[in-house]
Amino acid sequence: MRIGCGIDVHAFGPGDHVMLGGVRVAHSCGVLAHSDGDVVLHALTDALLGAAGLGDIGQHFKDTDPRWRGADSRRFVRAALEMLRAHKLRVGNADVTVLAEAPKLAPVREQIRAALAELLQVSAGAVNVKATTTEKLGFLGRAEGIAAQAVVLLLDAP
Ligand code: MG
């Protein structure tokens, strides 16, 4: 049994949506990023890699690599899962927190949860999605960007 955590932040920029857990969420702006800037999937990838002792997302997927320009971040999670399989590890459960003043997560929370469960190949009950603001404090409170934190538990694969 192994535990890992991941954190990711992206600044808001031009656009009309943000990607969260592989779900397109309408918003008054987008994020500045090399890939699709999905903070949930980036934090989750880091949590998966961290739990397995495999470093971090930047080591495996350089943010200067043209292959990842505009990339669907589900690719990073799938690649991390592939590495876990090679180490005979599987996901037990995952808990994700999105930190932002907006967009509000409530309308899409279950959609994101289902998307993450499908991606991680676990039941929806093994995935939790939470959201919080920072009470208008700091860069998140000023709505300059969006952040996510993920914690995962890995179990030995049979
Ligand atoms: Mg990122």
How would you describe the overall organization of this protein?
With 158 residues, the chain is an alpha+beta fold. It has a single domain (2-156), classed as 60s Ribosomal Protein L30, Chain: A. It has helices at residues 39-51, 57-60, 74-86, 109-120, 138-141, and strands at 2-13, 17-20, 23-26, 30-31, 89-99, 127-132, 145-156. The strands form two sheets. A five-stranded mixed beta sheet has the order 4-1-7-5-6. A two-stranded antiparallel ribbon has the order 2-3. Helix 1 (39-51) packs parallel to helix 3 (74-86). The mean pLDDT is 96. Bound molecules: magnesium ion.
Quick structural gist:
By secondary structure, the chain is an alpha+beta fold.
Calculate Rg over CA atoms. 15 Å
Overall CATH architecture: 2-Layer Sandwich
Number of domains: 1
Strand order of the main beta sheet, please? 4-1-7-5-6
Distance between the termini: 13 Å
User: What's the helix count?
Assistant: 5
Looking at CATH, which topology would you report? 60s Ribosomal Protein L30, Chain: A
The assigned structural class equals: alpha+beta
Annotated CATH homologous superfamily: 2-C-methyl-D-erythritol 2,4-cyclodiphosphate synthase
What is the name of the CATH class? Alpha Beta
SS elements, strand count: 7
Sheet of most strands? 5 strands, mixed
**Principal-axes shape call:** globular
